[in-house]
Write a structure and sequence with these properties.
CATH superfamily of the domain at 159-270: Golgi alpha-mannosidase II
Helix content: 10-25%
Shape: globular
Number of helices: 7
Radius of gyration: 20 Å
Structural class: alpha/beta
Strand order of the largest sheet: 2-1-3-4
Largest sheet: 4 strands, parallel
Distance between the termini: 15 Å
CATH architecture of the domain at 159-270: Sandwich
CATH topology of the domain at 159-270: Immunoglobulin-like
Strand content: 15-25%
CATH class of the domain at 159-270: Mainly Beta
Length: about 300
């Protein structure tokens, strides 16, 4: 885990680092903690050890959609004419926090080494310019996107957050290899703002097999209060405290008691989309900026002064 500039952010930083574990599956995530003798040990290590049993129980893979975000990394290898790398990492983080979908991040070096082929993707969004790899991809029939919001045309978000919670909550799933379920880590990545809003999960965005699913609190084994929409979206109310982790699972089959008093239904779902409860295609949650404007970051969240 990286050390933030402000010790008050240590707990939130630890929670964010731990929640990213499933992104490294199936090979494995960061399942070790480096002690450096600072306050990081005092704050971060207990959070890590407390969540370690959950990490050990995770298996599967992070979901993958047929869309990619491309970074020209040649400047890091001496190409002075390559795309700027100054803001790339922050822009990828901002993009994902706004649009939590399983898009792939591909670098020019991975393409050059043969580790990844751009032809595997229906569409690619360049973050720092168009290089020869993208030109060749487009010449071969690939789609090079010009706006981040266009990702919604080629990928499905696995999670939809209520807009006030964007930048507060991140969700990282591990999907079973047979596509019959998933385990989702919910992480409030701020030091002082809780997430107490509706949230919706998409089985298709997770890459699950067709069918009905429901949400279960992994800590208690209890069914999460929820409603399943006609299009399969699982709408629930999440109440996650600042710098706190929670684990939910997506289980095959309908929830037995999903329409009890106080459970999230169409009204809550509409807060996540348009007036009919559908995801808002006119105003997707993806930041509306051009690749050449990626250096102009959104205003940081008050609990994330360094973001």
């Amino acid at each position: 885990m990286d050390r933030p500039s402000d010790n008050s952010q240590l707990a939130a930083q630890a929670v964010q680092w731990i929640s990213n574990y499933a992104m490294g599956l199936p090979e494995g995530g960061e399942d070790f903690f480096i002690h450096d003798g600072t306050q990081k040990d005092v704050v971060g290590f207990p959070i890590y050890t407390g969540w370690l049993p959950t990490l050990k129980g995770l298996s599967g893979t992070y979901p993958q959609q047929p869309a990619a975000v491309y970074v020209d990394f040649s400047q890091g290898y001496g190409n002075t004419g390559g795309g700027s790398l100054n803001n790339v990492q922050d822009e990828i983080a901002d993009l994902w926090l706004n649009y939590q979908a399983g898009f792939t991040v591909v670098t020019s070096q991975e393409v050059a080494d043969g580790a990844v082929s751009l032809s595997a993707f229906k569409a690619v969004l360049p973050l720092n310019g168009v290089d020869s790899n993208l030109t060749a991809y487009q010449s071969s029939g690939g789609t090079v996107l010009t706006e981040p919001e266009q990702l919604t045309q080629y990928s499905t978000a696995y999670a939809q957050l209520d807009s006030p919670g964007v930048g507060v909550l991140q969700t990282v799933p591990a999907v079973a290899a047979d596509g019959t379920g998933a385990s989702i880590t919910l992480a409030d990545i701020t030091s002082g703002t809780g997430y107490d809003y509706p949230i919706a999960f998409s089985p298709s965005g997770l890459g699950l097999n067709p069918g009905s699913y429901h949400l279960v609190d992994a800590a208690t084994g209890a069914v999460v209060p929820q409603s399943e929409q006609p299009d399969g979206l699982l709408c629930a109310a999440a109440d996650i405290g600042p710098a706190t982790l929670a684990q939910w699972t997506v289980v095959a089959g309908p929830a037995r008691r999903n329409r009890l008093l106080g459970l999230p239904g169409q009204r809550d779902r509409r807060r996540l989309g348009d007036r009919h409860g559908r995801p808002d295609r006119r105003r997707p949650a993806v930041p509306r900026h051009r690749p050449e404007q990626l250096g102009r970051r959104r205003q940081p969240h008050p609990d994330h002064p360094g973001r």
